[in-house]
Amino acid sequence: MKIAVLDDYQNCVRSLVCYSKLKGQDVTVFNETFKSVTELASRLRDYEAIVLTRQRTNITSELLYLLPNLKLISQTGKAGSHIDLKTCEKLGITVMEGDGSGEATAELNMLLILAALRNFAVEIGRMKEGKWQGTVGRKLSGKTLGVYGYGKIGKQICRLGQAFGANILVWGRQSSRSKAIADGFSVAISREMFFSSCDILSIQLRLTPDTKYDIKPADLQLMKSDSLLVNASRAELIEPGALETALLMGRPGFAAVDVYEDEPVLDSNHPLLKLPNCLCSPHLGFVELDNYESYYGTAFDNILKFMSGDVC
User: Fold this and answer.
1) Is pLDDT at 263 greater than 80 in this prediction?
2) Domains of the chain (ranges plus CATH)?
3) How far, CA to CA in Å, does 252 sit from each of 8, 112, 280, 296?
4) Going by fewer Cβ within 10 Å, which terminus of the chain is more open, N or C?
């Protein structure tokens, strides 16, 4: 089968143990990201299967009609709004997906929280300049850690935060709040109380049509002037431009961000990178070796299942 693996930024897919599952197949691994439909169509026209690395490439209806040989899209992790599933169904293109533990992303959230609270990047930068201590950090223990969304990753962050001595406060849909209460965590009595009470707020919503741009400027203005907002989920959960404006106005006082509306971010003039009260990382949440073996391994297994006709 002629297979394309997209968006291997680190050029690491061929070195994974699970890559051997595709032995005997005609596989091309693309390291660069293609943005335009024309360029994507030109590169992918001859392929029968595409392996998507999370949501790095949008598979639109326009693109699908330009890929006459495509039979299968094998998604690492869950398929989402980046794939036009209705057009896939209309054209007879099978979409197969997997799942992951979310542990690596939960750990990255905690790393961002601790690094931001302790001014870690600033202090490392100072030391490289021949300077010694210049800031006074804060601890997580005793702080109110708000978790917006109580799914698989949100639940892990609650438990990790609790282990650090944080006071956990949950917000989300009624079903999420009920699950959090059943697991022994406190929930906010209102959305307004949640945003105004958190010392640290970790966004853990899944991006859907209902949650897109869910967080508004008015929500951010409720946050404390010394609070920290962490977004390692999806940039589109926050209204465009709202976080940059809120940080300039001082509420929240700081942000740690791992996700952006247009990735990869290769322009150092991105507005968040220009703000001294924002810690930016290049979408590292799921980028971890065991995670990659699991995600790609399942995606490759799904290709083999498709080839054998073992598809429900």
Assistant:
1) yes
2) 2-101+288-308 (3.40.50.720), 103-280 (3.40.50.720)
3) 34, 15, 15, 37
4) C
